[in-house]
Write a structure and sequence with these properties.
single chain, 165 residues, alpha+beta, two-stranded antiparallel ribbon, elongated, disordered N terminus, Ribosomal_mL41, ribonucleoprotein, transit peptide, structural constituent of ribosome
Length: 165
């Protein structure tokens, strides 16, 4: 770096000037400036394709390789190639998207009375009309839901709730 000195009243005074030489004196630190696949000149890319430099990594942008580098070439492994399984939608009645113009459906949570009415009332009324209730209004032919103990029914309801959420 070149410095200018000037003589002043108080003695010798140093003034900084602009320097055009690099502070590394010609050494280049390429680790600071990563050259990924898209960066660099065409000549650099051709050179990297033929003889890759060990200090310049080949950036894959997060994509997993579908094989491995052999002694002379890249070896493909068929099991590593992703396979997209798409269902056949011929004759499918629904549209592939839901329009934003569909009105929002706001439904309050079910109360215990509504849940009881949705699950048990129909069976109880059928048993009552056909005379299949016992002396304590217990069903003579209970359904699988009526045979459940309270603990098992609660555990089953919580399992269904966790599957929905």
């Amino acid at each position: 770096m070149m410095e200018l000195s000037m003589l002043s009243v108080f003695g010798k005074q140093f003034i900084r000037s602009i320097s055009t030489s690099a502070c590394a004196c010609g050494k280049k630190n390429f680790k600071k400036f990563p050259l990924y696949n898209k960066r660099g000149t065409r000549n650099f890319k051709e050179q990297q394709a033929k003889h890759p430099h060990p200090d310049v990594p080949i950036h894959t942008y997060g994509v997993r390789p579908t094989g491995y580098k052999g002694a002379t070439s890249f070896v493909m492994i068929d099991e590593l190639v992703p396979e997209l399984v798409v269902p056949d939608l011929t004759g499918f009645k629904l549209k592939p998207y839901v329009s934003y113009r569909v009105p929002d459906i706001v439904q309050p949570p079910l109360t215990p009375e509504e849940l009881f009415g949705a699950v048990y009332v129909k069976k109880i009324t059928e048993d009552f009309k056909s005379g299949k209730l016992g002396p304590d209004n217990q069903p003579l032919e209970p359904s699988p839901e009526e045979r459940l103990t309270p603990e098992v029914a609660k555990a089953k309801a919580l399992a269904i709730k966790s599957d929905i959420v």
